[in-house]
Design a protein that fits this description.
With about 500 residues, the chain is mainly beta. It is built from six helices and 33 strands. A five-stranded antiparallel beta sheet has the order 1-6-5-4-3. It has a four-stranded antiparallel beta sheet with strand order 2-33-32-31, with no helix packed on it.
């Protein structure tokens, strides 16, 4: 059974910070297209591309071939709409990389390869096909094109003749307008340091001004960015003309925050702004003229507000995990909606919202008592943890489209689908496998868009939601048979 995707997050975080049959859908390691940009997929003839997603009332359609034709494209980790096209950065072999990381750090119960019968890992993690990819969808011809694939050119320690990709995943993407007016896309990568060690090259940030050609920003040895101990980058955020990014301490994603006014310059243009000793950050968002930071750590979460930049000063807005017990450990999503900042958590999948005066509400989650004044807190929606589904463990992504807030979960029920006994083999449980997606017009009343991963029980998480003029795109994490992308066409809203 597969229970390690996020179930071992606490142990994995502690270790990483202190350090930190071949499937028919799998593309062979000798794929002649490897390393070449410009690989095109015409979505029109793709079998089932226009099929109505099962059990879905919103009109969602499958928008891309699963995994872009490769089951090891596990997650659409980075997604954005830019200059009339949709960009997707992939994470490679999610389950296998996590297993290899747990084995590398000798965590209790760690095993490689993964025992789940629906997950394919190579016999040795040194042979995993980990070249992360960037794909682009053009709405006119309705085609997907691979515009970048990471080179497989980093020698693996203690594995003579074997190499690993320079980027094993792309976790975050954003557009940034530079001082001279140039608008560029930046995408943050993940290195193999999590399971090959800190001697591997650091993660990279790639830059493109046309979406076709991607180059790493400078990262020379001896400079701040060149000497980073980060494993990866996440949560690229633009605020007050500067680019902020979380430098992840480990595979789970949290870490200190870096900033640059000139990110294209790389090297010493970046500096760390969160002080030593401050808990690690996982997610960031600009709201009401300030930058808000969501803590990602093993202690109950805190949402911080950056109240000054000279020096950088951080004030807690929500602390002590909002008094939840067991505690929400991490802020994994943030979204401005109706002039409020909505917060999604992991550990226990709850939703909160912050007002412009920094007061806050519990929106989705079990009732609890504020120990400082014995006040009972109840959710404004009336919904409990995980939208009343205890297997929802993340509020993984949120986005706004057509004046509605969309909220997507990571639903762990898929990982228990083969377990014997109750409730796992009950039809009522099996019928609910797959991520949940909800919508709301007012932040209080929620309607389900799907509670079954649009009918794909292996798509257990909503990793990205992107609003576009061509509709709403939902990116689903599926480490079993490859990522999924759905489109709710313009006019097909809840």
């Amino acid at each position: 059974m597969k229970r390690q995707f996020m179930m071992g997050i606490v142990a994995l975080t502690l270790v990483l910070i202190s350090a930190q049959p071949a499937g028919s859908q799998a593309r062979a390691a000798t794929d002649p297209s490897a390393g070449k940009a410009g690989r095109l997929i015409d979505r029109s003839p793709f079998a089932g591309s226009q099929a109505r997603a099962a059990t879905d009332p919103s009109g969602a359609i499958v928008a891309a071939p699963q995994g872009f034709g490769d089951r090891q494209n596990s997650t659409p980790w980075a997604m954005t709409w830019w200059k009339g096209q949709l960009y997707v950065g992939t994470d490679r072999a999610m389950a296998c990389v996590q297993d290899a990381t747990q084995v590398y750090y000798k965590l209790p119960g760690a095993v490689y390869p993964d025992p789940d019968p629906d997950i394919y890992c190579t016999p040795s993690p040194d042979d995993l096909p980990l070249q992360a990819e960037i794909w682009r969808w053009t709405p006119g011809p309705n085609t997907w094109e691979r515009v970048f694939q990471s080179p497989n050119d980093v020698p693996i320690p203690n594995a003579p003749g074997k190499f690993v990709a320079r980027d094993v995943g792309f976790r975050t993407i954003t557009a940034f307008t530079e001082a001279d007016g140039t608008e560029a896309l930046y995408i943050g990568g993940l290195s193999s340091r999590s399971f090959h060690g800190k001697k591997m090259p650091p993660p990279r940030i790639l830059r493109s001004t046309d979406g076709q050609t991607w180059n790493p920003i400078p990262q020379d040895s001896g400079t701040f960015l060149g000497n980073t101990f980060a494993v990866g980058f996440r949560s690229l955020t633009v605020y007050n003309g500067q680019m902020y990014v979380v430098a992840s301490n480990g595979l789970t994603g949290q870490g200190p925050v870096y900033v640059a006014s000139n990110p294209a310059g790389g090297d010493n243009n970046f500096r760390q702004i969160t002080p030593v000793g401050m808990p690690s950050i996982y997610e960031m968002a600009s709201f009401n003229g300030f930058l808000y930071l969501g803590q990602g750590d093993v202690t109950p979460f805190t949402v911080w507000k950056m109240t000054n930049t000279k020096p950088y000063t951080f004030t807690p807005v929500i602390s002590n995990g909002a008094y939840q017990n067991p505690a929400d450990t991490t802020v994994v999503s943030m979204q401005v909606f109706n002039n409020m900042l909505y917060i999604g958590t992991a550990g226990v999948a709850d939703v909160y919202r912050i007002h412009t005066n920094d007061s806050w509400d519990l929106v989705v989650g079990n009732s609890r008592t504020n120990p400082s004044n014995s006040q009972l807190l109840t959710s404004v929606s009336g919904l409990g943890d995980g939208f009343n589904w205890s297997w929802n463990k993340h509020i993984w992504r949120m986005s706004v489209y057509n004046n509605q807030l969309y909220v997507g979960t990571f639903d762990t029920s898929t990982q228990f689908r083969n377990d014997p006994g109750n409730p796992y083999q009950q039809p009522s449980f099996q019928a609910q496998l797959g991520f949940d997606l909800y919508s709301t017009a007012d932040g209080v009343h929620y309607l389900p868009v799907t509670t079954t991963g649009f009918g794909d029980k292996f798509s257990f998480g909503v990793r990205n939601i992107v609003a576009t003029p061509n509709g709403l795109f939902i990116g689903g994490a599926n480490p079993y048979y490859g990522l999924q992308i759905w489109q709710i066409p313009a006019g097909g809203t809840q």
